[in-house]
Amino acid sequence: MARRVAVIGAGVSGLSSIKCCLDEGLEPICFERSNNFGGLWKFTETSEDGMNRIYRSLVTNICKEMSCYSDFPFQEDYPNFMNQGKFWDYLQEFAEHFDLLKYIRFRTTVCSIMKRPDFSKTGQWDVVTETEGKQERAVFDAVMVCTGHYLNPRLPLESFPGIHKFKGQILHSQEYRGPEGFQGKRVLVIGLGNTAGDVAVELSRTAAQVLLSTRTGAWVLCRSSDGGYPFNMVITRRCVNFIAQVLPSCVLNWIQERQLNKRFNHENYGLSITKGKKSKFVVNDELPTCILCGTITMKTSVKEFTETSALFEDGTVGENIDIVIFATGYTFSFPFFEEPLKSLCTKKIFLYKRVFPSNLERATLAVIGFIGLKGSILAGTELQARWATRVFKGLCQIPPSQQLMAEATKKEQLIRSFPPQRIVNVV
Predict the structure, then answer these.
(1) Where are the beta strands (DSSP E) in 118-218?
(2) Which residue among 99, 116, 135, 247 is the one 20 to 30 A from 110 at the CA level?
(3) Domain residues of the chain, as ranges?
(4) How far apart are CA 308 and CA 120, in angstroms?
(5) What's the CATH code, domain 157-328?
(6) pLDDT digits over 152-197, tens only?
(7) CA dist., res. 17 & res. 234, Å (int)
């Protein structure tokens, strides 16, 4: 009898997990709370189902040659970097080709996932779901959580004195769909990740002025590199990796800074990494040009808000601000777990190889896609799902829980003892 596996979420991680379960002869049942698959890659004008959605103009940062599922390449006529519509088309082709849709139960919310009383022997789980107001309980031999880490928008208003006085509109980037409604407005975007850069650039074409506030700065990468090749293909080479391993970190940092500043000097653009802060990278082809043209003005972190303006740490003031968009990321959440599993899962260090919770007696729970990658999330989640399903089937083994918890504690102490590195990529 095939082992039953509950797959929570039908995004890119969920589709990978369904496919890998079938490859190993397992019986997957996927629960998706929206009415379609693809997760946040399925664009909608609103998010009435409570799901986070992408903005209309989103374009992938990893080229198609390095971001497909291993056994399903992109069609030849697809562009190297795809907008959200093209990318979702690919997910649909993948799901239909491998006949995955019949294993998905749409409009079904997972209410709770609990260990059964005999979990230490069987590793089984009680999963309670709700569909159209009707609850159902079922027993599963394993669970794959594929909800990702874009569940709950992080809106840290308490960190911005005077924000309650501000009379303009306040949004989280999760609510942003397009530039409609921003014409002639003065907009402040807080944060400097990929989303903040995209939103600021798009709004700079219609808004009266866009201010982009950052606490840390960032290295800005372009999608195209030397010779016009996709940048991630150019940097993902054995020789580059070898150099990164053999050179002292101080020499490597110096070389990398020179290379990153060759296109434009980040300090002159207000983008240099703040001293003592960890390096981060943003992929944006237009941000430097917008700064150069004055349609985007870089600002330091916000010190205080007034009714109509923002005072920045460098002493400058942004006057007559109409809208503030917080591109401040997301908080992790597993609302269907009980304590202490809920707390432990939100700390990545307690996930063995970023997949298996270290505190479980039986390795029958896998968290897929709860990672940040330099490369494609599709490739990463497929590898995670492939390994997890083989563990479920007994073809791969992981160390016992006591050993994993000891290793996790030791690793946490080791990480705390090291200062943040300035550069973490090779470009």
Answers:
(1) 125-131, 134-140, 142-145, 152-153, 169-172, 186-190, 209-213
(2) 99
(3) 4-151+332-396, 157-328
(4) 59
(5) 3.50.50.60
(6) 888 999 999 999 999 999 999 988 989 999 999 999 999 999 999 9
(7) 30
